[in-house]
Amino acid sequence: ASRREAGECRRQLQARLVEMESLRGAHQSLERQLQELEERHNAEAAGLQDTIGQLEDDLRNTKNEMARHLREYQDLLNVKMALDIEIAAYRKLLEGEETLFNMGSGGLPSLNSLPSPTYSFQPRSFSSST
After folding, report:
1. What is the arithmetic mean of pLDDT over 60-78?
2. CA 89 to CA 70: how far, in whole Å?
3. Which residue from 8, 57, 95, 130 lies 20 to 30 Å from 40 (Cα-Cα)?
4. Where are the transmembrane segments (predicted)?
């Protein structure tokens, strides 16, 4: 009975050793998978950090470009306003000259029948140094 019990204990021990080796192999396999997943995750995170850095650079460049365009637009708007003021001043001068001319040339009816002149503004291209 003791030999049978000892044999049974050896078989159980062998079964437990086989089971333990099997579990050890499964554990090592899971450890490798975990390490591979961590490496992939770290590589993906590094790639995403690079993408974020590039997007932040693009955003910064776009903001700078927008600021530059805004400054150029404001410069052009200032030039336009100055030209509008000059045009208004010249128009006033010309209207005053016409009035003087019309009052002084009462004997020339053919000149009075001419249509009043119209003035058009042709914009020039300006390049900004900013």
Report:
1. 98
2. 28
3. 57
4. none
Distance between CA atoms of 31 and 37, rounded to whole angstroms?
10
Cα first-last separation, the chain: 104
* Tokens matching residue 47: 């790639």
Q: Residues 26-49: pLDDT tens digits? A: 999 999 999 999 999 999 999 999
Q: Over the stretch 98-114, which tens digit does the pLDDT of each residue have?
A: 888 888 765 444 444 44
Distance CA 130, CA 71 (A): 8
DSSP 8-state symbol, 114: S
| Phi, psi torsion values for 47, nearest 5 degrees | -60, -40
Sorted by sequence, the CB contacts under 8 Å of residue 112 that are 6+ apart come out as 102, 105
